[in-house]
Amino acid sequence: MTNASSHSAKLAETDDPLAAPAQVADTRPKLVVTHGRGGTGKSTFVRVMFERAQSAGRPPILADADRTNATLQAFFKGVVRPDYPDERTVHDWLDAVVNQQAADKVTVVLDMGGGDQVFKRFAMELRLAELLDEAGIMPVALHFIGPDLDDLSYLNDIEQSKAFCPPATALILNEGLIKDGRPKEAAFSEIRAHAIFQAAIRRGAREVWFPRLGCMQEVNSRRLSFANAEAAELGLTNRQRVAIWRRVVEQAIQPIAEWLP
User: Fold this and answer.
1) Cβ(50)–Cβ(76) under 8 Å?
2) Tens digit of pLDDT for each residue in 94-142?
3) Quick one: residue 48, left, alpha or beta (phi over 0 = left, psi -120 to 50 = alpha)?
4) Alpha helix ranges (H) inside 56-194
């Protein structure tokens, strides 16, 4: 992992009007860690982060610690993964990733498997958020949540244990997980009012709505980047859906844009 470009995925280059700004408020390298149950949108959001960062010329290292689904490898080349799925191997791999990041001063996006406890124990052992901050690396925690109250369990686990609770913490509410026709505010009303959610907000976590893309399944099945999906043969209406969605996503993530790659 000698530099960000040598291990990062290579998507087709495009003159992308949605490229993230060349400069952000905090220029330190970042360790961005995704948390949450399986199927809550972690890997999809990682794809969004990578594409916008690559378009701006600063692609991060993608480190995939999901021990059951190698989703990111289907979309990107050069994804870093542990050799074996056992806990000791993953723990030692996390150790190596963090040490290499500190040596290379690059940004890393770490995509954890749904509810995986290895990172929690690793982070608690090292007081990882504080360690990274002292090493000049910005720690970022992204929690992915659907409208099911059980989706708060991992947030509660991380926050109560104080395993990885950096100031840069976001609560990503995934509108794509709403199973009925309720407005997002109604679907997520219990989540947002819950004591676990409110406690995170009070300590400074930022709320982000992640919009639904109606043709997401087709984009995924064709292994398209979102930028390429906007220009691909998806039909006129689906191409427009992707175009609108990408613009809505860019607006939605502005509260945490300075924390992203």
Assistant:
1) yes
2) 999 999 999 999 999 999 887 789 999 999 999 999 999 999 999 999 9
3) alpha
4) 87-104, 118-126, 128-134, 152-161, 184-187, 189-193
Instruction: Tell me how many domains the chain contains.
Output: 1
Domain that holds residue 50: 4-8+26-259
DSSP assignment of 16-84 equals -TTPPPS--S--S-EEEEEESSTTSSHHHHHHHHHHHHHHTT-PPEEEEE-SS--TGGGT-SS-B--SS
Q: For residues 84 and 42, what is the distance between their CA atoms, to the nearest angstrom?
A: 21
Does some domain include residue 163? yes
Please tell me the least confidently modeled range out of 56-60, 66-70, 77-81, 88-92: 66-70
CATH for 104: 3.40.50.300
Q: Is residue 180 part of a domain?
A: yes
DSSP state of 6: H
What's the one-letter identity of residue 113? G
200 confidence band (pLDDT: 50, 70, 90):
very high
Taking a C-beta distance cutoff of 8 angstroms, is the pair 29, 106 a contact?
A: yes
The answer to whether position 13 is within a domain reads no
pTM over 0.90: no
| 14 within a domain of the structure (yes/no) | no
Paired with 63 in beta bridges are 80, 110
